[in-house]
Amino acid sequence: MTGYLPNQQRYEQMSYQPCGIHGLKLSRISLGLWHNFGDTANQDISRQLIRHAFDLGITHFDLANNYGPPPGSAEENFGKILRHDLAAYRDEIVISTKAGYVMWDGPYGDGGSKKYLVSSLNQSLKRLGLDYVDIFYHHRPDAQTPLEETMTALDLIVRQGKALYVGLSNYPPELAQKAAEILKSLGTPCIIHQPKYSMFQRTPEQGLFDVLTEQGIGCIPFSPLAGGLLPDRYLKGIPEDSRAAKDARFLKPEDITEAKLDIIRNLNELAQARDQKLSQMALQWVLRQPAVTSVLIGASKTSQLDDAAAILSQKPLQQTDIDAIEAILTP
Ligand code: NDP
What we know:
alpha/beta, TIM Barrel, eight-stranded parallel beta sheet, two-stranded antiparallel ribbon, 10 strands, 40% helix, binds NADPH dihydro-nicotinamide-adenine-dinucleotide phosphate
């Protein structure tokens, strides 16, 4: 691939929103590197995806220590792309990573201890080839570590200059609130929360969005397309190039039930009547939540990034659309 010059109009087509009451703005669409960036991925496509996303004004790239496969390889590969194509643009990019799931053997490679979080971020920075990340997340709650210890570790990481901001992921509402209060008292506020949220997974509506709004914390829902199940992709069987065919650990063919396909068919008709794709309506539906700062998508093709970015110039969902979607989701 030849030298890369980003699209000069990139900031005109995207919009940016602050994380809650905080100063950091994120592009309304963020790209996650959970799939399609490990060593098993086609490296040319991974590189095209990053360049294309940046060209569309996507400034936020989301990683975790364990993204691959193998774990760690998405950070390494993203680090290479950064050095080759985006080194001059580091200050125009928000890079996040996380620790919280199992990463290495023994008692210090999993959970929420200070030992694990500090050493994991040191490893992530090496793989990425960076001095600091913009956001460091605790990836999931750990009942075996006192919340104070995990939050103190996040505060320490910021004070060490290894992350500018901290966030939490997969914390239920009460714990998210407690954690946010501890972080605030330490002087390192939680600026963002990363929950799973889509038309098929609505748990954050049961208290989490309220806590985040009250605390002035931003929200970046992950898997807004239910890992690719929600678009019209599986209506005619399982395509060879789809996640369910290529990496069925997280989207199993048996999860693609006839009941879900019925819902998808009805949603698809509604999206078509609105002159958009179902994937686009599903992203607009997530972004309709006032608590949501940015929607965190995955992509296997640049056309999927185009689909996502196009929603910003499409007609927003009206109350009648939201009601019609609700009637399909909860008949
Ligand atoms: P999505 O729900 O957005 O699924 C992405 C997949 O949907 C793509 O890989 C593609 O699948 C399909 N897709 C995307 N656009 C289209 C389109 N226009 N038409 C049809 N199909 C489309 O998100 P992910 O599950 O990938 O998660 C996104 C990010 O969230 C991750 O990369 C990661 O950064 C983060 N995450 C965080 C977690 C946490 O615990 N904090 C857990 C999981 C994810 P296909 O490959 O079939 O083309």
